[in-house]
């Protein structure tokens, strides 16, 4: 018996205000406008569920689409972003070269990947044959992409780091990845 196709649409949050408390950072005025691309991208599809990081910026990015489809957003703590420590560009490369490395006060990429994949494996079973939307973050999404393609590294992360929102679709048969498509994004590097 063959498995049904499952479509998973990941939405990396729109541009947010930078601040101390990562969990409650709101979207910028531009981010509030840019999030309309999510509904534009999903329009015409059947969406069975919206799942999300508990962080405000991720929830606020997908909320208008969830409201349009008449769905509640199910928050999952495992989908949260990486706990960041001190930021230095050289540490970014080191983290991607060694998934077990973490700067002082930070979380390593292996931990981020493990908890995100733990949640994702459950979603693939629970929503088999469905189309789901997952509100996420740049690093969290990148570790999922790395799980399926070990060549996904720092250069790939830097390619998408300023794409907010960034929307991709992954198609699965059971837990086997069939393909990944980039659906849309807003490049925020032009105003930074």
CATH homologous superfamily classification: Phosphoglycerate mutase-like
Helix proportion range = 25-40%
CATH architecture: 3-Layer(aba) Sandwich
Coarse shape: globular
Largest pleated sheet: 6 strands, mixed
Question: How large a portion of the residues is in β-strands, by DSSP E?
Answer: 15-25%
3D structure, described in words:
- Helices cover 37% and strands 23% of the residues.
- Strands 3-2-4-1-5-6 form a 6-stranded mixed β-sheet.
- It has one domain (5-38, 49-191): Phosphoglycerate mutase-like (Rossmann fold, 3-Layer(aba) Sandwich).
- Helix 5 (109-126) packs across helix 6.
- The chain has 192 residues and is α/β, with parallel strands linked by helices.
Offer a quick outline of the entry.
By secondary structure, the chain is of the alpha/beta class. The chain is built from seven helices and six strands.
Features:
192 residues, alpha/beta, Rossmann fold, six-stranded mixed sheet, 7 helices, 6 strands
Please describe the topology of this protein.
Blueprint: E1 5-12, H1 29-34, H2 36-42, E2 49-52, H3 56-68, E3 73-75, H4 89-97, H5 109-126, E4 131-136, H6 138-148, H7 154-160, E5 163-173, E6 176-187
Parallel strand pairs: 1-4, 2-3, 2-4
Antiparallel strand pairs: 1-5, 5-6
Helix pairs in contact: 2-3, 5-6
